[in-house]
Known about the structure:
Elements: E1 4-9, H1 13-22, E2 27-29, H2 35-41, E3 47-51, E4 61-63, E5 69-72, H3 77-82, H4 84-89, H5 91-97, H6 103-108, H7 111-116, H8 123-130, E6 134-139, E7 142-147, H9 148-151, E8 152-154, E9 157-158, E10 165-171, H10 173-176, E11 180-186, E12 197-205, E13 212-220, E14 227-228, H11 230-236, H12 243-252, H13 267-288
Parallel strand pairs: 1-3, 2-3
Antiparallel strand pairs: 4-5, 5-10, 6-7, 6-10, 8-9, 11-12, 12-13, 13-14
Helix pairs in contact: 5-8, 11-12, 12-13
Amino acid sequence: MYDIKALYEAESVADAIRLLQEHPEAQIIAGGSDVLVQVREGKRAGAELVSIYGIDAMRGVTYDEEGAIRIGSLTSFSHIAADPIIREKIPVLGEAVSLVGGPQIRNIGTIGGNTCNGVTSADSASTLFAWDAIVELTGPDGIRKVPIQEFYIKAGKVDLRPAELQTAIIIPKKAYEGYFGNYIKYAMREAMDIATLGCSVNVCLTEDKTGIRDARIAYGVAGPVPMRVPTAEAAAKGQPVCRETVETFAKSVLEDIHPRDSWRAAKAFREHIAVEMAKRALTKSIELAGGEIRE
């Protein structure tokens, strides 16, 4: 059923790097929810696999010394959704990953695997883009940290160098403190489906809740990789919390997104729902932040 040439189990990050150096053609496997499917389909027939699933140091959600939220790349979707730090500071990420697959997939699938796939439809990706996430990568030359927008190179390809693995995803304190967010996934079915379009918005309001200090918006499936929408962000920043601001923000997304026609949805349909999703996600984010949209 599974045509696997060899499976090597890493005991630590350093051991994983060593194994990847010794077997340069090997594929990293964590939960296996994607890799094993590809092997079974024959896309990776005869593969060598380096399993990092036993490296517990790459699991869990913690604060670092600067107050940033550090999410180990082997942390499962289920654990992220239930984690008290996530629920207190960035609950929208827990909500987003709770929309991935079904319970079995969420229990085994990891946030590192979801982002390293490089696919634009990953439910965690657009939310992490909206939170200015930083990807921690560890390899033979040590640790390097890459903004998530630079981590995605093109469809299905991310900035992973030879013998390197993603060890954590970091949300800087300045990126989450004072912000409230909402993620909307549009799919043909309510569960167990890939996003036709995903939209994540977060907002920081002024102290009196009448103005938008900052807003961020990111999409999945609006282009070949997840993407931020700077035109819409600029249209909302510094503006009053009112219906006109929300409408302008939503319409502005069309300046930057690049959806395509596919068997899942036509480009025109994706553009239509992108505007509506932006409107709803910003409205909900403002409400979560304690604001009230005036006419």
